[in-house]
Amino acid sequence: MAKSSIHIQAGQLGVFQHNDRSRPTKNTIFHDEKSLAVTAKDAFKIYREELALRSAAYKKRTGQRLQKRAITHLSAIVNLEQHHEFEDIKEIAKVLAETLDTRILQVAIHRDEGHIDENGNAIKNYHAHIEFMGLDSKGGSVRKKLTKGYLSNLQDFTAFALKMDRGHNYARERKKRPKRLDTYEFKKAKMSEEEARREGRAHLNDLKAENARLRAELKAFQAQREQYAMLEGVVKELREQIRAKDLTIDDMHNRIEAAREVLRKSVHPHYANKVTRVLLSAEQKQGIAETPQNRPQNTPSPA
Fold first, then answer.
1. At a CB cut-off of 8 Å and minimum separation 6, what does 165 contact?
2. Is 298 a member of any domain?
3. CB–CB of 19/40 below 8 Å?
4. Per the count of CB atoms within 10 A, which of 7, 26, 165, 240 is most buried?
5. Is residue 214 part of a domain?
6. How far is CA 246 from the centre of its chain?
7. Same domain, yes or no: 141 and 82
8. Residue 259 contacts residue 223 (beta carbons within 8 Å)
C-alpha cells in the first residue's frame, strides 16, 4: 500500500500544459488509463486574472509594485492510489485555498507515468498536481505561511482525506528528510538502476543497503571510531568504482564480505573487553565477588 505524501514547490514554466497533456512529455509511457485535468487554457486565464488582482492589492497595501522575484505560482504534488478520483483531490485543494487564502488554478490526476522494472512489470506513479496562486488576497507571500507546523498538519490531513497511511513524520521521528526527486530525476535514477541490473553491475543503492547493514552491526558490537573510519574508506572506494561503472554486483558483495570479516576481527576485542568490564562491575556492585566469606561451601579454595 502506497504512503500518502504532499509536496509543495514553486510552480514551473509549462506545468499547465504538462498537466493537461497538451504538450508532449517524455514521462508519459502508459496509455491504458486516462489522465484527468483542468485545461491549461482555463488555468492560464484564472492565473492572469488573479495575478492582476493580487498585485493591485499588494500595491495598495504597501505603496510599492510587486517585486519581480516574488513567487506568484505554487504547485503541490500528491501521491495517490489507482482508485482515487477528482473528488478526493478537490477536498485537499479546498483546504489549501481556505487556509492559505489562495486561489486554485488547476487540478490534474496522472495515471500514465512510471517505469518498467527489470522483470518487465509496469510500476505506475499515480499522483496529482494542484496548482495555486503564490500570493494571498492581500498580495502577501503564501510560501511564508508554509511553516513546519502547517506542513506537518497538511500531511496528516492528506492521509486522512485519501484514506492512506501517512508517510514519515521526520520532525516527530527526529530523522533527516531525504532529498526528494522530481519526476525527471526519479525516472533517470530508475533507468540507471535497471541498466546496472541488466549488465550485472553494482548500483549505488546496493552499496547504500550494504553500508547500512554493516553500520548496524558495528553499532551492535559497540565499535570504535577507527572501525567506522575503516568502513567509510571501503565504501568510498566502492562508490568511486560504481560511478565509473567498473564494479560488478558479485565483486561488490565479495569486497563487502571481506571488509566485514576484517571489521569483525578488529572490533571483537574491544567489544569483549567492554562486556567483561560491565559484568565485573555488576558483580562487584551486587557484592558477589568471590571471597573466603561468601564462597560457596563446595567450591575449593585456590591452590
1. 1, 3, 4, 159
2. no
3. yes
4. 7
5. yes
6. 28
7. yes
8. no
Do 43 and 144 share a domain, yes or no?
A: yes
Are 38 and 138 members of one domain? yes
pLDDT the model gives residue 298: 44
Does residue 294 fall inside a structural domain?
A: no
Answer yes or no: do 13 and 137 share one domain: yes
Question: pLDDT per residue over 153-192, tens digit each?
Answer: 999 999 988 988 876 554 444 455 555 455 555 555 555 6
- Furthest-apart CA atoms within the chain: distance in Å: 100
Q: How many domains does the chain have?
A: 2
Host domain of residue 274: 199-284
Contact in structure between 238 and 207 (CB atoms under 8 Å) = yes
Q: In whole angstroms, how large is the CA radius of gyration of the chain? A: 29
